[in-house]
TrEMBL record:
Signal peptide: none annotated. One of its GO terms (biological process) is carbohydrate metabolic process. Is involved in generating a small heat-stable compound (Nod), an acylated oligomer of N-acetylglucosamine, that stimulates mitosis in various plant protoplasts. Belongs to the polysaccharide deacetylase family. Gene3D superfamilies: Glycoside hydrolase/deacetylase. GO terms for molecular function: hydrolase activity, acting on carbon-nitrogen (but not peptide) bonds. Transmembrane segments: none annotated. This is Chitooligosaccharide deacetylase. InterPro entries: Glyco_hydro/deAcase_b/a-brl, NODB_dom. It comes from the Bacteria. Pfam families: Polysacc_deac_1. The lineage of its organism: Bacteria, Pseudomonadati, Pseudomonadota, Alphaproteobacteria, Rhodospirillales.
Length: 307
């Protein structure tokens, strides 16, 4: 009668609500108001992935966004990605310094191992770092052996610690891909928060068999790769979309008497290009000029965890 295949109903957690036990159904209008540091009504969180793209990716279980496309050796795409870490990242650092903006740089283990100077420069400028998996060809998924996935996590954390002197406690999976067991394995290795799930616009408590994580809101839809590359929209439209999002969230914060979080993911090899950096700067400046807007770090957001 439902029109759905019988297999739909064999999933063990098929139930009312979100079909899993990590967090309860919790419509935004039913929640108690939260308070952000400084009383901000709109928080801006900018995430900059520092990625390494192997020249000969296996592409398993799928190719990550930005992976090589043409027959080996795909030097056109490989060198463009390398440009991001050599040039684009420093262009972003200069922009952030001009704006007084503190970002979170999501660092892959291979980047920390190959470009430790870049990690030191990011920290010297006062930015936060979190882990971003080993590289873009070491994706997390449910058919990955436990020992292999744990090695990806440990190897990544070790490499970042060697380059930075920090044992980071935040995580963003490569390509935002993960398996059913990934959150618990992250929690078991000391990760406090992760940003793979896009189910909210406020931090939420996320239960795993190895303890609690905090799921940080990180939009897929305002990601520079998504807008500029996947949707092939021009830069001025991205500026308009960011502005529209800020306007809507700020108004919603007033209506719900609870702050909102605007998140942007910007990649050095995408937004760090000379013909895009101006649009990014205009987008960020427009948001920062709004009354009641603050740039917040993951630690700031952890202090305002929603249910």
């Amino acid at each position: 009668m439902s029109g759905l295949p019988d297999s739909y109903f064999t999933y063990a957690r098929r139930q009312a609500g979100p079909d899993h036990g990590h967090y309860p159904a919790s419509p935004i209008r039913e929640r108690a108001p939260v308070v952000l540091p400084g009383g901000a009504s709109l928080a801006l969180w900018v995430v900059v992935p520092l990625e390494f793209f192997p020249l000969n990716p296996s592409g398993q279980p799928f190719k990550a966004p930005g992976a090589m496309q043409t027959p080996y050796p795909d030097l056109r795409h490989y060198t463009t990605r390398d440009y991001g870490n050599r040039v684009g990242a420093y262009r972003l650092l200069k922009l952030f310094a001009r704006l007084g903006l503190r970002a979170t740089f999501a660092v892959q283990g291979a980047v920390a191992e190959r470009y430790p100077g870049l990690i030191r420069d990011v920290l010297f400028d006062g930015h936060d770092i979190c882990a971003h998996g080993w590289d873009t060809d070491s994706l997390h998924h449910s058919t990955l052996a436990e020992a292999v996935e744990n090695s990806y996590i440990t190897r990544t954390l070790d490499a970042i610690e060697a380059a930075s002197g920090q044992r980071v406690t935040g995580w963003l999976s490569p390509a935002r891909a993960e398996g059913f067991a990934t959150p618990a394995r992250l929690a078991a290795q000391g990760i406090r928060w992760f940003a793979d799930w896009a189910h909210d616009e406020l931090p939420t408590r996320f239960q795993t068999s190895a303890g609690e994580l905090i799921s940080m809101p990180l939009s897929n839809e305002l990601d520079d790769w998504q807008i500029l590359i996947t949707y092939t929209r021009p830069e001025h439209e991205w500026l308009a979309q960011v502005t529209d999002a800020a306007d809507w969230l700020a108004a919603e914060a007033v209506r719900l008497n609870s702050p909102r979080v605007l998140t942007l993911t910007v990649r050095p090899y995408v937004s760090g290009l000379p013909y895009r950096i101006k649009a990014l700067g205009n987008s960020l400046q427009t948001v920062l000029n709004r009354p009641g807007t603050s740039v917040l770090s993951p630690d700031d957001l952890l202090r305002a965890v929603s249910v």
